[in-house]
Amino acid sequence: MSVIAEESGPVVIAPQLGSVKLSMLLAGVVILLMMLFGLTMRAAQGGLITIDPALFYKIMTAHGAGMVGTAGLTGATILWFFTERYVSLAAGVFWAFLGFFLLGVVLILGAIFIGGYAGAWTFLFPLPALSGGLWQPGAAIVFLLGYTSIGVGFLLLHLEVGRKLIAKYGGIGGALAWPLAFGSGRPEDAPPATVVAAMASTIFNSLGIVVGAAVLVVSIVNLAFPEFTVDALLAKNMIFFFGHVFINASIYMAVIAVYEIVPEYTGKPWKTTRVFAIAWTVVLLFVLAVYPHHLMQDWAMPGWAVAMGQIVSYFSAIPLIAVTAFSLLIYLRSATSMRWDLTSALLVLGVAGWTAGSVPAVLDGMIVVNKVMHNTLWVPGHFHTYLILGEVAMAFGFMAWLVRSGDERLSGLPGTAFWVYVVGGSGFVLMFLISGAMSIPRRWAVHLPQWHLQAQIASAFAVLIVLAAALFVLRYLTRIRWS
Questions:
Q1: Vertex 288: Cα angle to 286 and 292 (nearest 5)
Q2: pLDDT surpassing 70 at residue 208
Q3: Given 213, 226, 366, 385, which residue has the most CB atoms within 10 angstroms?
Q4: Dihedral sign from CA coordinates of 168, 169, 170, 171
Q5: Pick the CATH number of 17-479 from 1.20.210.10, 1.20.1250.20, 3.40.50.720, 3.30.70.890
Q6: Within 10 A of 25 (CB to CB), how many other CB atoms are there?
């Protein structure tokens, strides 16, 4: 069922609820499985268990691809669900998106655990073709086809969202609230915060996916016909542009849940202000421009690109904080009351975790720090903060909201699960950052004995995360209603 909202806000909340609930159920199960994969890797690095290094890198590849893809799935589902409060979206498009996504998952898992592909989720050229005999080119082709299938699904979803927002709000500028941001427009005439976020996310994720699809296709052709060569530096730029934009888009789509759900807990609408509109336009530009900070150790990169990566990294946290942490603090301060339950607690945690994750990210974006820290566990420290305490927390908050009942409070088992998740997630990412500060390398299957303690402590925190996440998913599963 599709319901269009009036200009003043949504009249009825009745979007395509069944497909959304199914999507979040699948995402919750996959997130839990990927967390178990992560626990397995940290336990192996801590010497608590022993696994073959070849299997470790298969798990690492599945963990990376699975978590990034599922973050995108939850973010896109949140975007779709709440955007449909304001425009009518075609139900068939979401089902097609979900179908392409699941097809991609099957291809990726088959390539890894049947074909033996273990080249990491970043598929850096020419690594898929240089396996040292661990996998055949066919396995790499299947893996890349899985990514391509997922990309097609996301592009279909974004095209549907984008065209409907453009049609209703008078173009891209109207949907981004540019008359308010850069003209004489009035706040009361501006589109809702959800529309601004959905339009910006649709633009930069569509561009990232198109670039990603291009490099996927040329990589597949290279695997099938090795005489077809690709410039490795160009391919790496395209891959990291795609990867950086995609994971950031996942978080920016998920924050829409904060804009829509938190007002239900305060009774105060989340308004589109001039600062908010300007910040989202800056976010749009920065997300597209900041990716070179991933390439600072590629000495063949032009100096201006590396410098741009550092400069934009310095400033990229400012609009992020403006549209999330600062806005939320001002909003909550101005609200007369705030009701706390599992939903609201997880959503606020998601904003706090996302903001906290920007600090080690900005530090790693400094050339002098990047030279020392980039190939250490500092990097998974910052993006696990983004995910565990940021995007995934918001996704779990949305799941809790979908199955809420009555006047709930943050107490009992849900309250315990929340605090276990906070403690586990905080400790887990902190051990990554401490390990990175100690120059412990990332992506090593076997750790030296003097590195075991850090991985063992991280494993203990990972157990807490898994337990809490399992309770979140189980609670969702037992409460879900399909009608």
A1: 90
A2: yes
A3: 385
A4: negative
A5: 1.20.210.10
A6: 16
